[in-house]
Design brief:
- With about 200 residues, the protein is α+β, with helices and mostly antiparallel strands.
- The protein has two domains: about 70 residues, Ubiquitin-like (UB roll), CATH 3.10.20; about 90 residues, Orthogonal Bundle (Helix Hairpins).
- It contains six helices and six strands.
- It has a four-stranded mixed β-sheet, covered by helices on one side. A two-stranded antiparallel sheet has the order 3-4.
- α2 crosses α5 and α4 packs antiparallel against α5.
Length: about 200
Amino acid sequence: MTNLDFQKYSDGLVPAIVQDAITRTVLMLGFMNEEAYRKTSETQRVTFYSRTKQRLWTKGEESGHYLQVHSISADCDNDTLLIKAKPAGPTCHTGSDSCWDEENKSHYGFLSSLEDIITDRVQNFKPEESYVSKLFSNGINKIAQKVGEEAVELVIEAKDSNDDLFIDESADLLFHYLILLKAKGFELEDVVSRLESRHN
C-alpha cells in the first residue's frame, strides 16, 4: 500500500484525482478513505467514499462506466492520490467525458490536427480540389499501394546520407499512413493503445 497519510485530514479522506491513462485528460476528483483505497487496489476499479451517501461507492456501479485502474501514485506529501485509469464510458453523471465538460480525446500535437484535416477532406469530398479526397476516390488498394511506395522511398533514403530527404520521406510515409488508418476506420489512438497494451 502507498504510504498515505489518511490522518492528515480530520475526516480521514484524501483527494483522489483521476486521469485517463492514455489521453492524460483529468476526468474527476473524488475522495478516499483507507477502505476505499484498499478496495480500489484489490478490485482495480476506482472506488471512492461518498460524503453525501456516507458509504463506499464504485464509480460506474449504476451506469456501468467503471474506471479501470492503470496505476496509483501519491504526491510528494503522501496526502493526495493520482489515479490513472481507463474509463468504460463518460465519467461525469451529466454524460460528459469529464467533470469539467472536456472531450476526452487523445491529442498528439500536430498529428491530431492532421487527422482532423484528413477527416474533413473525407467528409467534404472534393476529389478535384483535394489530394486526400482524390486518393480516397481511388479506393483502399490505391491508398495501400501509396503507403508501400512511400515506405520503399524512405528505406532508400535511409541508406543515403541526405538527412533532409530522409525527413521528407518520413513525413510522406507518416501522412499516407494516417490516410490509410482513416480508410480502414481507425485512428492513431488505436495504434498507440495497442502498443501500450504490449507493455502492460
